[in-house]
Amino acid sequence: MRWTMSRAKVMVVEDESIVAIDISQRLQSLGYEVTATVSSGEKAVEMAEKTRPDIILMDIVLKGEMGGIEAAEEINKRMKVPIVYITAYSDEETLRRAKVTGPFGYIIKPFEDRELHSVIEVALYKHELERRLAENDELFRAILSSVQDILFTADSEGLLTMVSPGPLAGYGLEADDVLGKGLVEVFGDEVHHEMIGRALKGEPVTYEWTWAPHDKFYFETTLSPLRDFEGNITGVVGIHRDVTEKETARRALERETLINRELADLSKQLLASMSLEEISDSITRKAEALTESRYCLAGFIESGTLKNYTLTENVRRECHLDTDSLKLGGLIEWIMREKEAILLNDPSSDPRYSGVPEDHVEISNLIAVPAVLRDELVGILMVSGKEGGYDEGDLELLQRLADIYALAIYRKMEEDRLKASEERNRALVEKFLKIVTEVLEEIR
């Protein structure tokens, strides 16, 4: 405790001087320190701030403009000090007015020393308990505001009765706006209904779910039964933990693993003997699938011209392209000239883009990358039509596919050159042998 009976400081507010002296003497005989004895409400407010008593004995009826009740209201605005009313009046109206100020007790004139002692000790004890509760409440609120997880309680109907306000702001919510609402109404996902039902039956549960108020978030929630003092389940207490960063990293790792496996399989496949058209077909199907695109095309250079295009099924069915005069708004010509990749989620805003051929579906987004080997352009790879648009990860993936495409094209062309060279040499040897044979025949 902050006080003991022998050290507690008391201020007396009483406009009858004889009564005030009597009360002061009684208090001193009981071991209390009397900090001041005043006779008006105005003086009571002044001396309360000046002497800082532990408790105030306040006569309800005081002479002057400010009565005891008004003085108590003003003191309560300025400081936290318990006030006990002293009154000779016990009528309902007076007590009703006095109750509004939250007094810590009443003592009716005339009173005995033991009554005075008891009411003071009870008031001091009650005030100390309220102070501790207020401190604990402030600490609890500070904790709720500082934690990153969303702490909450819900009743047996699944309606929120408490929620930590701090984390909610990051998701565009206010605690006052969600109290009284159901978890499903606030956070979506019907899984909350099932899990609350299990927790209300006494089963602690942990589950994962997603929420997309504007961006997509991943959560892990733990629910436990909330019990009253008699052990009855009255609701649930829970924690929503944002695991978006961890889940995003896990999914990225899974995707990277999948991509590496797919690219390894593709590279192995391209080692087999196949035509340039078959190489392009394998690349386009893989690019369309891995980037979740609706359309894909690839082209390789032959005799110095980029015109040998391979189209995926959706392109052939929906785009009505004339591959002999394919321009796509000048983007392909720009890529061939600059040997740089393009990522456009709004092509119409880019000055390099001037539209699509007649009867072609509108392009909402695209990535196009050159297939370059040893600074030589050997092909081009393009995807479009991904729902939600492309990101840098998609661009990086398509560049890796373009690198594989460039190697496969170069390898195939070298094989074809070598084969052509071998055939020429064989033809020369056969011609030479024929000439030698004819010469020998003539000599004979």
TrEMBL record:
Residues 9-124 form the Response regulatory domain. Residues 136-194 form the PAS domain. SMART domains: GAF, PAC, REC. This is Sensory transduction regulatory protein. One of its GO terms (biological process) is phosphorelay signal transduction system. The modification 4-aspartylphosphate is found at residue 59. Residues 203-255 form the PAC domain. It holds the Pfam family PAS_4. The lineage of its organism: Archaea, Methanobacteriati, Methanobacteriota, Methanomada group, Methanobacteria.
